Structure formats: C-alpha cells, structure tokens
Amino acid sequence: MADEPTINELNQKVDRLAHEQEQLKEDQKPEQKEPAQQEQTDYKPPEKPQKPAAQRARRYIKRHPGRLILGVLGLAVLVVGGFFLWTYFSSYEDTDDAQVDGDLNMISSRIPGTVVGMYVQNNQYVAAGQSIVDLDPRDYQVDLEHAQAAYQQAVAQLHAESPNVPIIITTNQTTISEGEAAVVVAEKAVAAAQQQYDARVADLRNVEAQNAKAQRDVERYEPLVNKEEISRLQFDAVRTTAESDAANVDASRAAVQVAVRDLDERRAELLQAKARLERSQQNAPRQTASQQATVTTRRANIAAAKATLDQAALNLSYTKIVAPVAGVVVDKTVEVGQRLQTGEAMLDISQIDHVWITANFKETQLARIRPGQSVDVHVDALDETLHGYVESMPGATGAVTSLLPPENATGNYVKVVQRLPVRIHLKPGQDREHRLRIGMSVEPKVWLNSNR
Q1: CATH domain 94-103+352-447 topology
Q2: For residue 241, what are the contacts with CB-CB under 8 A and spacing of at least 6?
C-alpha cells in the first residue's frame, strides 16, 4: 500500500533516535574546566568525530532489541488492520435517504350519493371485501326498476314484430304465384282472342266473296229479267240473296271489329298481369327486408335496454362500497350524511402486508450495485435490522420524475449529485407481524460481493 514505510525509512528513524539518545547523554555530563582553560576563556577543545548513523543504529538495536520488535509488530498490525478496514468499507454501499414504501389505495365513490353508513375508522384494519361505506340506494333502485320495464317493453315489441317476417314472406310468395298464374291466364285469353279474331276475319272474307258473287248475279240477272227471259220471281230471289250477302258482310265486319277490341282487351289484361307480377317480384324482397330491419331494430332496442338495465344494476351495487384490498385505514375524510360526487376520495388503505424499501442512492454509489445483492435494512422505529435483496434498478433519477423537473438548458446550470430510487425487497419472514408502515425511515446497507 502507498502508506506502508520501507526498510530504509525504518533504519533512518532508528538512527535518528540513537543520535538523539547520544546527544542527550553528552548534554547531561558535567563540564570539567582545567585551570588554564579557566583563565583562557577563548580556548575551544577540538570537536570529537561523529559516529556513523548505521553504527549508532546497530548500537541502539543491541541495547533495545524489544522496542524494535514492538515497533515492527505495531506497524504490521496497523497495516493489516488498515487493509481489512479498507476492504470492509469498500464491500458495501449505504444511505440514510431511504424509507418504507407500499401500495396506498385511495378509495373513492363511483357514483354520486349521500352517505348513510360508515363502518371504519382511521388506523382500523380491514379485510378485502369488507363493507366500509353505504350510500343511499333509493334513487338507484328506482332507476333499476325503470330500466327493467324498458327492457321488458323492448322484448315484447320484438315478439310482436318477429312473426311478421314469415307472414310477409309467405304473402309475397303467394302474390307472386297468383301473379304468375294471372299472366298465364291472360296469355291464354290473348291466344283465344287472337283465334277468335282470325275466325272473324276468315268469315268476313267468306261472306265478302259470297256477296261479290251475289252482286254479280244481280247484275247478270237484271238484263234478263228486263228482257223477260227469266221470271221476276227468280230475279227477286237472286236480289234477295245479294242483299242478304251484303248484310252478312256488314255483320262479319262488325264481328271482326268486336274480335279486334276483344283481342286488345286481352292484351291489355296480359300487360297488367305482367306488371303486377313484376311489381310483386320487386316489392317482395323489399318488404321482407323492411320487416327484417324492423325486427333488427327491435333487437337493437333490446340490447340497448339490456345495457341500461345492467348499468342501473351496477349503479345500485356501487351504493355498497367495500374494501378492494386488505390493509389499514388512513386519512378518512367522509362522514354519515355527507354528499359525495363521482370520484371524490373518502379514505386510503395502506397495504401493510405488501411493502418494500425505496433507497435513494447517489449516482456515484450505483457503479457496483446490481439486482440480487443482499441488503441489511436497519429500521429506525423498530431498532431492528431486517434482511432483503436488491429487486430492481431505477429507470430515471428522482429529479426528472418530480413535479418540477430541472431545466438545465435554460443556462442556470448547477451540477448536483443526483439520487436514484433503488427498490429493495424484503426476504420472506422478515416482517411476520407486519409492523412496517409506509413512510418509515430506514438505513439500507447493500453488500456488493454477496447475492441473496
């Protein structure tokens, strides 16, 4: 080590001590003046030659060997003790800027309401699920009943609309079938009218031919009757036949006109039947889709009513506030009769069965600290030392995560040694009685050369 004396320095020290002893003996001898010297005060005796330092050291060692051995042993003890002391102090890192941390759960109301029951006090231990506060449930009971009625109404509307879908589908299919049958009947009627028209046209042509022949017969028989080559009776028969054939022609032409009108009517009926069929075919899926949309709307209304019902049931359940975790009640600020708003804090629950240590080490102390290293934690309040290990290293300094982090870029920069929170976990069984409380001061000592 740099402070350990060398052998030469030790020898020089021994020589210096021997020389001081010799000088002390010489000074203690009485002065003897001769008469001549007393008379002549200016006479100076010759100086004695100085003895070498090594010679004096050997003489001192011969005279006092125990002192040298004790000095060497004392120096060795100091060197060894200093080495072990330096080794001990460099084997750990400690800090007094540390405290017990844990989960501090703030309990607040999820709904507005008036407090009608308060079942805990500060410093009282509560178990998970234990009732702590009751709100007035009457308003929320009414909301629940209203939501139940709306839900039942939506279900009834769905039941009323659901059968209409198959009814409309069946009706549309029947209408389409009837339209198709009407089209077939109309087509047959058109065919019959067409045949009737063709027959009337043929009859007209027949009677026109007969009428033409009869008229020619009248023309041929008229000169004969004038010459009296034939009798008047014969001519009258021919003329009557011609007049009858002419009347038949008019009748046949009228029948043709009737057949034409009948054919047009049948064609119009066919067009109407086809139009009705086409309309039915087009409207059928639309009507079905419309009714199905109505049913879908009813189902959506049921879902909305069910959600409202569920929310009303939840709001009613929120009137009974229970402890979500086990712990000790702290900072209770609510009393019976108080009106609470949504999210308003009522109390905190300190989870004393789940705590850890937050040690704020300087950044210059973190070079050798690693997760898993053993830690001795001295608790000031208990005057006991608990054992744990480094659980995790910090992700940022405490200054950066503070409410007002430093802004070094502004120009007002002063270098300050930063502190970083190291999380320390206590080993199982160290706090069996759960005496540690959040915020207690502790002094952790991290052993750098050990693991849990």
Answers
A1: Elongation Factor Tu (Ef-tu); domain 3 (2.40.30)
A2: 214, 217
**CATH architecture of residue range(s) 158-314:** Orthogonal Bundle (1.10)
Predicted TM-score (pTM) of this structure: 0.59
The two tokens of residue 412 are: 């007002």
- Give the number of other Cβ atoms within 10 Å of residue 279's Cβ: 13
At 446 the three-state DSSP class reads strand
- What does the domain layout of the chain look like in residue ranges? 7-28+48-90, 94-103+352-447, 158-314
Q: In tens digits, what is the pLDDT along the chain, a chain of 452 residues?
A: 444 455 556 566 666 776 676 666 665 555 444 444 444 444 445 554 545 666 666 666 666 666 667 777 888 888 877 877 777 677 889 999 999 999 999 999 999 999 999 999 999 999 999 999 999 999 999 999 999 999 999 999 888 888 877 888 888 788 888 888 888 888 888 888 888 888 888 887 888 788 787 777 777 777 777 777 777 777 777 778 777 878 887 888 888 888 888 888 888 888 888 888 888 888 888 888 888 888 889 899 999 999 999 999 999 999 999 999 999 999 999 999 999 999 999 999 999 999 999 999 999 999 899 999 999 999 999 999 999 999 999 999 888 888 888 777 777 777 888 999 999 999 999 988 899 999 999 999 999 987 76
Residue with tokens 């006479």: 43
Classify the C-alpha dihedral 194-195-199-202 as positive or negative.
positive
